[in-house]
Write a structure and sequence with these properties.
By secondary structure, this protein is an alpha/beta fold. It is 18% helix and 27% strand. It has a seven-stranded mixed beta sheet with strand order 6-5-4-3-2-1-14, with helices on one face. The chain has a seven-stranded mixed beta sheet with strand order 7-8-9-10-11-12-13, covered by helices on one side.
Length: 215
C-alpha cells in the first residue's frame, strides 16, 4: 500500500473524490452530484445503476476531459458505457481486486439493500480503497477487512437510523463520514449527528460538499 495520505473531498450526496500524489479517484458521480464531479478524475468507480449514483453525462464529462481515465463498475453500468469508451470500461464484482491510478481497490458486496419487497433488487458493489476507506454504495456491506474510514449512507428510502447505527457498530471503523445525505434536511442533521455519534461507537462526522479532509 502507498504510505502517502489520502485527501478526501466530499461531493454532493454519495459522490466522493480521493486524491494522492497528483492522481484522483472519483466514486459515484450521480445525478445529485456536481455537474463536473468526475472531471479531472484518473479513475471513476460506480457502485450501481441508480441515477443518484450513476449519471451518464457526468461520466462522459470525466472521460472526455481525461482521455486516459478509466471506469470500474458492475455489469449493469458497464454495458451502458463500454460502447462509447472501448477498452476503458472494466466490469468487476465481489471479490475482485484491481490497481488503478496508484490506488489498490478491493470489491465487496453483490446486492442493493431492500427498498421494499415488491421492488426487485439491483446489483450493488462497494469499494475498499487502499485497505482503509470503504464506500458501500447502497448497501450495508461489511468487508472482510478492517476499515479505517467508512463512508456512511445515513439517509435513504432503504434504511432507518437504527440500521445505520448498527452498521457502524458492525464495521467498527476508526471514523464514519456521512454520504447519501442529499435528502437529509438541516433540521434532521443534528439528530443524526447526535444519535450516530453517541451510539455508533466510532468517531462520526460529516463534510459540507466541497470540503476536504486528510485521511
Amino acid at each position: 500500500m502507498n504510505a502517502s495520505p489520502l485527501n478526501l473531498t466530499k461531493k454532493t450526496h454519495s459522490c466522493i473524490r480521493v486524491e494522492r500524489d497528483g492522481q484522483a479517484l472519483v466514486i459515484d458521480p450521480g445525478g445529485f452530484s456536481e455537474g463536473d464531479a468526475a472531471v479531472g478524475a484518473d479513475a471513476i468507480l460506480v457502485t450501481h445503476e441508480h441515477a443518484d449514483h450513476f449519471d451518464e453525462a457526468r461520466l462522459r464529462a470525466g472521460m472526455e476531459a481525461n482521455p486516459a481515465a478509466e471506469i470500474w463498475t458492475l455489469r449493469s453500468v458497464a454495458e451502458q458505457l463500454s460502447g462509447a469508451f472501448p477498452g476503458r470500461v472494466h466490469t468487476v464484482g465481489h471479490g475482485d481486486t484491481f490497481s488503478v491510478a496508484g490506488f489498490e481497490v478491493h470489491v465487496h458486496g453483490e446486492l442493493h439493500a431492500v427498498i421494499h419487497p415488491d421492488i426487485p433488487r439491483v446489483t450493488n458493489i462497494g469499494f475498499l480503497v487502499d485497505g482503509s476507506l470503504f464506500h458501500p454504495g447502497d448497501a450495508l456491506t461489511v468487508p472482510d477487512h478492517p476499515v479505517d474510514t467508512l463512508m456512511l449512507p445515513v439517509m435513504a428510502p432503504w434504511n432507518k437510523i437504527s440500521e445505520v447505527i448498527d452498521y457502524v457498530r458492525e464495521v467498527r471503523p476508526r471514523r464514519a463520514i456521512d454520504i447519501h445525505d442529499a435528502l437529509l434536511t438541516d433540521l434532521a442533521r443534528p439528530i443524526y449527528d447526535n444519535q450516530i455519534g453517541a451510539l455508533g461507537g466510532s468517531d462520526h462526522g460529516r463534510l459540507t460538499p466541497g470540503d476536504t479532509t486528510r485521511l
